[in-house]
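Feature request, filed as a ticket because there's no other form

It would be nice if the structure record came with a short human-readable summary line next to the tokens. Right now we just get the raw output. Example of a typical job, pasted below so the devs can see what we mean:
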Amino acid sequence: MRTERRKDIGKACRLLKLSRSSLHYQSIKDDNAIISKLQQLAVTNPVEGFWKCYGRLRNEGNIINHKRLHRVYKQIGMPLRRKVKKRITARVKEPLEVPEAFTHTWSIDFMSDALSNGTKFRSFNVIDDYNREVLFIETDYSLKSSRVIWVLKHLINRYGKPKKIRMDNGPEFVAKLAQQWSAGNEIEFKYIQPGKPTQNAYVERFNKSYRGGVLDAYLFDGIDEVREVTQQWVDDYNNARPHDALGGVPPIKYRELNSPPVGLRYAPATPPLHYAQQADTLNGLK
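Raw output as currently delivered:
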């Protein structure tokens, strides 16, 4: 009986031009380690896609072929559905240029959201155009032009004075106080044209990542929770999250490789206190 079955199998393989060894082959691949790492990344960074996961694993020192990783990635059902939009060609007279050095041009912008009880809050985002590094995110219920100047003074003391600061035409930025301060410090405030957010594309792209990774990912009960989660996300964004425009390396690593620090200017590693936190500290010392 077995002999006849073997003959039938051999005849079928000859007709199909298939090797009997490949017919009985069983894979010995073990993808459990890769599956575990991908599932862990899905928990810690749920809005990031395949290439961000691949970049994180490579930056951690894991040597893995992207084809194998993508096979496992699809096998466990991790691909995100991508929303396809019709995009109109941007008509920008002055295209964005990447600065030649760190602390040459900064981009700043505001964002808004609400707590679980409906109370609205705002965030003031500052990034460096050279390596897209997040310099600071100030969050509070109200952010006036004097608060903007306070944040910029703090960043200048830490990183040095930029030559340009790119922004939109919001009321906080066009305030008389901000204009006087920029003139006194010889910093050019470069306003974009009204209704042309593509002229401030670096910070607009960052705003999308910040909203997807923090503002839309959590339900906050207080402003302190927003600050805590934001600082954790910023630390990961600057030190671990691979950036496509920087060749898949994080912003701080890119800056260290291409723009070494001068003296102790970039030495402070602890995050600066927010405006409200510094005010509480000073009141406690009185």
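Something like this underneath would help us a lot:
The beta strands are 105-114, 120-128, 134-140, 164-167, 188-191.
The mean pLDDT is 81.
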